[in-house]
Design brief:
Low-confidence stretches: 196-205
Distance between the termini: 81 Å
Structural class: mainly alpha
Number of helices: 15
Mean pLDDT: 84
Shape: elongated
Largest sheet: none
Order of helices and strands: HHHHHHHHHHHHHHH
């Protein structure tokens, strides 16, 4: 116990075994001077730290720089300090989907590329995006293409967009519960029905959903035609190659 409370000894241990930080006395795990070298080596060790270390801007930024997931262990002041650094947040967003939660709305508005970085990795990050980006079709398609149920965070207009809904339901059939049912031409009860997976139509729930809406069917048929064109072109190329031989 005495050694666990010895700051000099613990700092020496951290130089060759950062994980030793987890076994230090509570007072030392809350000491920014002790926590800093530990999280620089392994950001996740911030989860073993205590206040005030978890609220120290320098400690938090060092931890997040090493591992984006460390944001979840930051105190309010530490997270706020990290959230002001766009480069750091961009790096964190590639690892931790909820990183945008710690970024101020003004910073998000001024840095759409930061939002895109997060959404490409974690569709649900759309929840923290500015309204303008939640109404952007390209952004919404990226989000629902990654996680279909991110449709929940798209704007009302995008939840009524056949392309966006079709892509969301292809990725995750249950996303249909977040679609604007009336605008897409099928009854709201149908959305609840398919969303719970009580019915399997052609190619599963997604196919059943597409069959229930003229607008979605139009999108689906268009994509099918494109796929058939590609298959036909491939077959023609193969035929030509065989003749050449």
């Amino acid at each position: 116990q005495a050694l666990r409370e010895d700051k000099t000894f613990v700092l020496q241990c951290l130089s060759f075994c950062p994980a030793c930080f987890s076994f230090a006395a509570d007072a030392l795990r809350g000491d920014p001077q002790v926590a800093l070298p530990a999280v620089r080596a392994d950001g996740e060790l911030l989860f073993s730290a205590l206040h005030p270390a978890t609220n120290d801007p320098q400690v938090c930024k060092a931890a997040v720089n090493q591992n984006g997931w460390a944001l979840a262990a930051c105190g309010p002041e530490g997270a706020s300090a990290a959230g002001k650094e766009v480069g750091l947040m961009r790096k964190a967003a590639k690892q931790y989907g909820h990183a945008l939660r710690f970024v101020s709305p003004s910073v998000l508005r001024d840095n759409p590329s930061l939002v895109l970085t997060a959404v490409k990795r974690f569709g649900y990050a759309l929840e923290y995006a500015p309204e303008s980006m939640r109404a952007d079709k390209e952004v919404c398609l990226i989000a629902v293409g990654r996680h279909g149920e991110a449709l929940e965070y798209c704007s009302v207009e995008m939840r009524a967009d056949a392309d966006v809904v079709a892509k969301a339901c292809t990725q995750s059939p249950g996303a249909v519960v977040f679609a604007n049912a009336q605008a897409l031409g099928f009854h709201p009860l149908t959305a609840q029905f398919f969303g719970h997976g009580w019915f399997a139509g052609r190619e599963g729930w997604g196919g059943a959903l597409l069959s229930s809406s003229p607008q979605l069917m139009e999108v689906d048929n268009g994509e099918a035609k494109e796929r058939n064109k590609e298959k036909g072109a491939s077959a023609a190329r193969a035929k030509t190659e065989l003749k050449g031989k």
